[in-house]
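hi! just following up on the protien thing from before. the input was this:
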Amino acid sequence: MKLPDDELSVLLWVLFEEGLWIAWITTPIWWPVLRVVMQRGRLPHPLAYIAVAAALGYGFVGAVMLIAFVPLKVTGLFLVPQLLEAGIAAGEPLHAADRAITGLMVPLIISLPFTAIFGSITLNRRWRALCGLGLQENVEHR
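and the predicted 3d structure came back as:
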């Protein structure tokens, strides 16, 4: 990507293009903060809620990358070139899987805000029970 020449264009480029990317990637952090601030009832342990919601958002994407992408990319990087050079039949399907996984990395990163928002909403519904406050209310009613 080519940077603009004048200062105003550079400033606008940084604010809009790079700023939107940073906002997209940090959604697992700022979305739970918004939920805590905008919620009517006070959420117990708000900092813990923000940390857990962010960990869920980043953890889901990180787990998928660790379980699916890393082994296939390592195989594609080290094993596939040797298999293709040796003419072994298993090289082509592994090379096709490596290309497919490479193509799926971008949609996984794009899904980060959606997983963060869904995880935050789901966690918000169960947060009082997870903190033990829902259990105390049930004991008092009996």
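The chain has six helices and no strands.
The radius of gyration is 22 Å.
cheers
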